[in-house]
Amino acid sequence: MYKILFVDEEEDVFEHFLDYVEASPLNAEFEVITELPLPELDEMLDLVVKHSPDALITDFMLNEAKVDIKYNVPYNGSALVQAFTELRQDFPCFILTSFDDQAINQSDDVNIVYIKNILHADSEKQTKARASFLERVKKQINHYRTRIEEKESRLTELIKLREEGGADIIDEKELIELDDFLEKSIDKKSIVPSEFKQLSNTQRLSQVLSKMDEMLNKINSGDGK
Q1: Burial of 156 by CB count in 10 Å (0-12 exposed, 13-18 middle, 19+ buried)?
Q2: What is the pLDDT of residues 109-149, one digit of tens each?
Q3: Non-local CB neighbours of 175 within 8 Å, separated by 6+ positions
Q4: Which residues, in sequence order, are CB contacts of 168 under 8 Å at separation 6+?
């Protein structure tokens, strides 16, 4: 089961999106949560984190209609996606919009922008578009999950290798890179800087330098033993 969080400023659109998913051949694989945009971006980010979805789908113009919200929303869907991916690197996000030109111009990744009218279409062509979009969502979620699982598995291997004393500097470098990646997948803004993870590297390099100094001192003193 894949959990989708769908954000829009109109509750009527929630019904269109739910109907859209229900009409898809993949409907049994998706759980949909709907939310109106909150008046502050930080509050909205906290809400997304609280729901812990597998994918975020948002409307682009979140401040256009004032039917179900009476407050100003000072961000659009592109800003929401950008802010959330600053917290969760490479997280699956999508933008549905009737203003695709504006959304594409304001999005870092044009491939996440989809035309909103696929929610309302009934033709065979649009039915394929519906299936294509949800298939894309599913693939992106699976790709994200697989990538994290592979990184976690490799990190576990390297930690075990380090604990057994068999990790070299190349292994240490990979371990830090993997740790950085996984931290960014959880909370990109709270990661520990890489230089603070290099204690074992520093210790090993210091030992090497000490041995080099010792050897040079013996050579300079004429003692080659």
Answers
A1: exposed
A2: 556 777 777 776 554 455 555 557 899 999 999 999 999 88
A3: 155, 158, 159, 162, 167
A4: none
Token pair for 167: 């990790």
90: left (phi over 0), alpha (psi -120 to 50) or beta: left
CA distances (Å), 197 to each of 140, 158, 175, in order? Answer: 30, 14, 9
Structural tokens at position 213: 């100094």
SS3 at position 9: coil
CATH of the domain at 117: 3.40.50.2300
Full-model pTM: 0.74
Assess whether 8 and 112 both reside in one domain: yes
Range of the domain at 44: 2-145
Q: Which amino acid is at 131?
A: A
